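Shipment paperwork, digital attachment
Item: protein structure file
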Amino acid sequence: MSVGTVIISIVAAILVIACIVMGASYKAYERDEGKKDAKFKPIFGVLAIFFTWVLLFANSFVIIPTGYTGVRTTFGQIDEVTVQNGGNWKIPFVQSIQKVNNKQQDIVFEDQVWSETSERTALYYAGITVTYQINPEKSAWIYANVSGYKDSLVTQSVVASAIKTSSKSLSSTDATNRGIMEHLVAENLQSSLDEKYGENIVIINKVTISDADFEDSYNQAIANKQTAQLAYEQQSIENQKAIEAAEAEAKVKITQAQAEADAAVIKAQGEADANKLLNDSLTETILREMYLEKWDGSLPKVTLSGETDTIVDVGGYMPEE
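Attachment content:
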């Protein structure tokens, strides 16, 4: 017998009982028509039937809002078929329908989760928010198999395990990169929940990490390294400037020396050309004229004897001026 058949049978029985009560009330009214309180008896019967109907209706109909599904239980036995949102009938006092939230839900873990990178560098994560939702088709399974599912479906231990697994596969630089770390944690967390509950039951939509940092000693080492690196870079810049200045100065000197050498060559070439031109233009007549222009009228005081190649001083034979 289906649930719908059972509900129809119960409603029919209630109607029969209501008719019997109303008939009995009316007969009592007719029999006691002359009595003082007889007129109140039919009213009590009608009120009793009305409140009975209200009570039965209130326990026979459940509205499941959008974003939720229902789980039907009959005498504590959970129905494997998930109740969809909207209006749903149930057998009063026999069945109950519990709502299960299938919307995106956030669970926040404020405590620090310590881990390490692939380089064995210690660091921690804090302010972790996991956004998840329950597959609507699996609401009945969750309700039946996960005790206290509202608080224990996604636990801090499972999230911490996913974080540690993720960070150990990353370098120190990537382990503090939220864009890389959050995506990897979501993948590992989804894998852990699939292994625990089965695939496509709990869906991880997003993981957000608000704080991630290394331990103090590592931060100090990083600060020292950065200071040394900055000093090295500054010294390198100064050295490069000095080298460039020396190279520039050397180039200037080379350029100047080359210019001087080129000028000397040009000057020498000019003098040579001038001498050649002068030499080519000199004649015996011109040389004689130049000699006479320079002669002061004095005769030579020494002469060379042609016969003996002896130099004779003739100055003593010449009259004084």
